[in-house]
Amino acid sequence: MDGVTLTPLKIIPHPSGDVLHGIKSSEDSFAGFGEAYFSTINKDSVKGWKKHSTMTLNLVVPKGEIQFVIFDDRDKSTTQGGFMSISLSLKNYQRLTVSPGLWVGFKGLSLENILLNLASIEHDPAEAVNMPLDFLDFNWDLECK
Asked: Taking the CB of residue 111, how many other CB atoms lie within 10 A of it?
C-alpha cells in the first residue's frame, strides 16, 4: 500500500535473553523521533480506527501477535479505497511504518499482546482523528483470525 513500509528486523539470540531490533536512524523509513510507547491489547479486542495528520507510526510487536489493518482514503493515492492487513509477531518480526493520513486499526490475536510505537513526533491529541469500528466496512471477525 502506498505510504506503508514493512522492514524485516533482526532478532539476535542470546542465552540470557534475545536482542530485538526496532529502528535505526540510518534507515530510509526513519522520519524522526518524538516518543516511544508501548500499548497492550487483549485477545480478540480491537482498537481503531485512528488517522494521524502528522505522526508517522513505526509499529513493532515484541510479544504476542497483532493483526494490523490499514485503510487508504487519501485523494490521489494509488491505493485509494484499499485495505492492507498484516499480522506481526516474533514469527513475523518486522516493523510496520505507516505514513500520516492512513486509517489504522489492530486486533489482539494472542493471550498477551504488546506493541511498540516509535513515533516520529510526541503525542498530540489534536493531530489525530478517532472513529468507531463501524466507521469502515471491515469485518474483524472474518478477516482477522
From this structure: 9
C-alpha to C-alpha distance for 95 and 130, rounded to whole angstroms: 23
Architecture category of domain 4-133 in CATH: Sandwich (2.60)
Q: Would you state the torsion angle of the CA atoms of residues 130, 135, 139, 140, taken in this order, to the nearest 10 degrees?
A: 10
CA distance 99 to 101: 6
Write out pLDDT tens, residues 90-122: 999 999 999 999 999 999 999 999 999 999 999
Q: Of the candidates 54, 95, 102, which has an alpha carbon nearest to the alpha carbon of residue 79?
A: 102
Q: What is the value of pTM for the model shown?
A: 0.92
Which residues have CB under 8 Å from 61's CB, separation 6+?
A: 88, 89, 90, 93, 113, 114, 115, 116
The domain limits of the chain are: 4-133
